[in-house]
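Exercise 7b. Backbone tokens:
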């Protein structure tokens, strides 16, 4: 029995060396949020004592780091999309303002105005209003999704707490907490056992999010309907389903083609005006792509709202973000290879494994060579901590 126990502890000690090396490296380079790092440290002893089989410390740490990498990418995408939509709206507004002043300087005749300029300016004004509404709605949608993310996190904690309560209070652990951490967990579980309110709060904001998403979808359909009236009729989209369009829009493209035949002056500014027709098409296409990408990126928010809000409040330089992502990828690559090494070299004692781990870290042409020296430093610190643990 003692031999089996010692073998098990030895294996876990080998794994612990790699885990602590990675944790120290991630802490030194701020690759995990403060809350994630705190949780990881608090959980280290529990993981060391309880994990077995497929649920290993290395597997859990790799999952955390990979998830963090995906989140940073998604949150970066959200920021880019929001900025792009805002910038596009401002560009369109400036172009419309210039168009209005340009037409004023032309001093168009009443007939020119009736045949093209007035309906075109009305159309352009309507289009700009919808673009501005889209920009505002996307900001509101993000705010709602942020609230939904918080509520989802609250509900997840409450739900998991109720499960933990049943398990922990069903055995001796509920009667005799083994540590201050266990006592804290028990108190949190008891406090959050009733998760009905959290579920109700989540349901309410999810409904609000669905309504806002549908509102934006309908707005995009309206913008698309306007774009159809600003293109050659032969190129217009044939809907294979009924789409409710709230307003009727002037066929400004057909009006323009007809006015070109009546008013010679329009021919001189044809290319200038065609740029605006193209602008409408590009605007809709980009907004549709942005909205689809936004929905994908925002899904990550609900999975880890705390990390999202910590990232949102930090003013990162773009280069620093890219550097962090590269480091996350490197340490994940290292952990995956190191995890395989622990399994394949299970017969090695701790000292030999430590040496082999150093050789692995310092391996030329590895996927983590850019961080190898920092990993070696972290490994030295990890061994120092392990060797002095009582």
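Sequence design result:
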């Amino acid at each position: 029995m003692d031999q089996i126990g010692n073998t098990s502890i030895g294996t876990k000690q080998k794994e612990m060396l790699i885990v602590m090396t990675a944790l120290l490296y991630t802490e030194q380079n701020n690759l995990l949020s403060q809350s994630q790092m705190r949780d990881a440290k608090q959980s280290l002893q529990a993981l060391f004592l309880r994990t077995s089989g497929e649920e290993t410390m290395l597997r859990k740490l790799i999952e955390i780091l990979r998830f963090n990498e995906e989140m940073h990418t998604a949150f970066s995408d959200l920021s880019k999309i929001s900025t792009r939509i805002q910038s596009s709206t401002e560009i369109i507004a400036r172009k419309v303002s210039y168009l209005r002043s340009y037409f004023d300087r032309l001093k168009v005749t009443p007939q020119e105005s009736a045949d093209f300029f007035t309906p075109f300016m009305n159309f352009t004004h309507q289009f700009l209003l919808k673009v501005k509404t889209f920009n505002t709605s996307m900001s509101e949608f993000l705010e709602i999704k942020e609230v939904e993310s918080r509520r989802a996190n609250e509900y997840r904690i409450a739900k998991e707490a109720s499960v933990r309560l049943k398990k922990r209070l069903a055995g001796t652990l509920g009667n005799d907490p083994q540590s201050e951490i266990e006592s804290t967990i028990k108190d949190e579980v008891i406090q959050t056992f009733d998760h009905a309110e959290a579920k109700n709060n989540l349901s309410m904001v999810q409904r609000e999010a669905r309504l806002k998403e549908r509102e934006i979808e309908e707005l995009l359909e309206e913008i698309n309907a306007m774009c159809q009236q600003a293109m050659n009729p032969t190129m217009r989209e044939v809907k294979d389903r009924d789409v409710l369009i709230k307003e009727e829009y002037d066929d400004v493209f057909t009006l323009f083609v007809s006015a070109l035949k009546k008013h010679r002056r329009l021919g001189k500014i044809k290319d200038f005006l065609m740029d605006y027709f193209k602008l409408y098409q590009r605007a809709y296409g980009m907004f549709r792509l942005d909205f689809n990408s936004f929905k994908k990126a925002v899904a990550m928010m609900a999975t880890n709202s705390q990390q999202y809000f910590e990232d949102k409040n930090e003013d990162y330089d773009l280069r620093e973000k890219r550097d962090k992502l590269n480091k996350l990828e490197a340490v994940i690559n290292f952990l995956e290879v190191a995890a395989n090494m622990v399994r394949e070299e299970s017969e090695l004692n701790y000292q030999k494994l430590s040496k082999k781990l150093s050789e692995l870290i310092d391996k030329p042409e590895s996927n983590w060579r850019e961080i190898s020296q920092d990993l070696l430093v972290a490994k030295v610190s990890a061994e120092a901590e392990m060797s002095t643990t009582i």
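Instructor comment: The mean pLDDT is 76. The radius of gyration is 30 Å.
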